[in-house]
Amino acid sequence: MLEIESLGVSYGKTPILRDIDITVDDGEIVGIMGKNGVGKTTLVKAVMGLLEASDGRIVFDGDVVVDATEASADDASNGVTGHLATALGLGSTAGTWVSADERARRGMGYIPQGRDVFPELTVRENLKMGESINEDDDEVRYEDVYDYFPILEERRSQEAGTLSGGQQQMLAIGRALIGNPDLLLLDEPSEGVQPSIVQDITRDLQQVNRDLGTTILFVEQNLHVVQHLAERCYAIDKGTIVDELGPDRMQEREAVTEYLAV
Amino acid sequence: MALYELLNLTFQFLDSFAFIVLATVGLAIIFGMMGIINLAHGEFILVGAYATTLSFNLLGVPLVLAMLVGIIATTVYGIILERLIIHRLYGRLLDSMVVTFGISLVMIQLTRIVFGNSLDQIGTPFGGISYGVYSYSAYRIMLAGAAILTLAALYVVFTRTTFGIKARATIQDEETARSMGVDTDRMYLSTFAIGSALAGLTGALYAPTITMSPDLGANFLVEAFVAVVVGGPSVLIGTSLAGGFLGTIDAIFTYVGGTFIGQVALLTAAIFAIRFLPDGITGLLEDIRAKRREAQ
């Protein structure tokens, strides 16, 4: 479903991520854990296409959505179009870069850190925004979303900004699920949500994975979510992957907490 | 107050309301939804008015068709300007003011060079309605209807259509909207085109009533900016309430002391609004709603 090869991301000249290699198979739930400031959000945004990669490749569902490898950059910049684009100030045409909106239409669902629901749209309008995700699947899943999160149906006419933190997180997940994404990306789903609701959301995401076969990749620093949601997990530190934990090691508290601020 | 005088005051209100709403609505959409302070808004209206007048006078097309030409010409002009210049200014409020002020100056001088200092006017259609010693232009009454219809149409577009929901979402959080599959560049272009089309509509509708000169846009700009400030952040409700509030003030003071006093009252109201309602009428309403929510 998703292959990330030697991914690098920089802010200006400062490298934030380097040599990231991650593979997520169809139907898997994979976590990426790490402390604050190690590059988790940067990684999810780069996968979604909200940040440009400075190096490496990302392949989503068999299609290359990012190719910023040196070979690709050389090929493009040596070509006539590369020189012409640079001369016209249109930026480099090096490599491949599929925009975030196109990645969403191809089947990536994204739940940002802090939920980022549209506060002045109603719950129903927020959910409608998810309809553009995964254009290959015409079906919209309002009934499924309302089954998972009945509170959203009760409050469908209410402005999203007036919901509680937990309800906003449910809405953000529901909004991403409406279009039936092939891959669901979550950026710290537990942030700002009370513990009992975190457990509910963890259970709901597992249910979504079982019912709809949705592949899930999430970044997190909450021990409960990492241990209960992920089938396997990568650990990230200082912008690079430092460990990969399979199902057995995932159950060892010490093996997980080593990479979290617990 | 005699019935005739009440009617006169009502017509004065409808006239002011229509003018303020139609002058404001394009500016309010471009500012409220895109964060661009378009100081060339008056010159967008100029394009609509000139295109309408020229196609009526030179091509001899019916007035309604000439107005359609005016709207289309302004929309195309807006789209070209957005692609060439404006799209580089999103999120740069002060830069957008300087650049659009420059565009405004260029447009006025260009119009003067190409078309001279004036054009033949179309002439106001539909004649007048007489009541007692008063008479009033039927066309100007129709303009009030056009202003209300415009607000209603925009309400439907921005609250009841998928485009409107996506446009509002893009304004609130562009990055999240993109990650929901929205082509935000196209959304900004479309919203700017709607704002331009509305300015074109205003120019087209007022072309038969105003003197066609290159600086005609300035007649609209003051009322438009005052109404945007008084209306506050909510584009449609703000424009409607500001149109009602300022229209009432303008009508009453114009009725009492003439056009000049009406303008003075309008600007005085704007000063009071900036001082006591810095977020405009809709900002005040939003504060009240927030306090009620907290109390609950």
TrEMBL record, chain A:
The entry's keywords: Amino-acid transport, ATP-binding, Nucleotide-binding, Transport
Alphabetical GO biological process terms: L-amino acid transport
Domain ABC transporter: 2-262
Gene3D superfamilies in alphabetical order: P-loop containing nucleotide triphosphate hydrolases
Presence of the UniProt keyword Nucleus in the record: no
CDD domains xref list: ABC_TM1139_LivF_branched
SMART domains, A to Z: AAA (SM00382)
GO molecular function, one term: ATP hydrolysis activity
UniProt-listed PROSITE patterns: ABC_TRANSPORTER_1, ABC_TRANSPORTER_2
Assigned protein family: Belongs to the ABC transporter superfamily.
Name assigned to this protein: ABC transporter ATP-binding protein
Organism for this UniProt entry: Salinadaptatus halalkaliphilus
TrEMBL record, chain B:
Transmembrane segments: 17-39, 59-81, 93-116, 136-158, 187-208, 220-245, 252-277
Cellular component GO terms held in the UniProt record: plasma membrane
Subcellular location: Cell membrane
InterPro entries, sorted: ABC_transp_permease, ABC_UrtB_arc, BCAA_transport_permease
Membrane-topology annotation of the record: Multi-pass membrane protein
Domain of life of the source: Archaea
The keyword Nucleotidyltransferase appears for this protein: no
GO biological process: amino acid transport
Family in the record: Belongs to the binding-protein-dependent transport system permease family. LivHM subfamily.
NCBIfam families hit by this protein: urea_t_UrtB_arc
UniProt-recorded name of the protein: Urea ABC transporter, permease protein UrtB
Organism: Salinadaptatus halalkaliphilus
Primary gene name: urtB
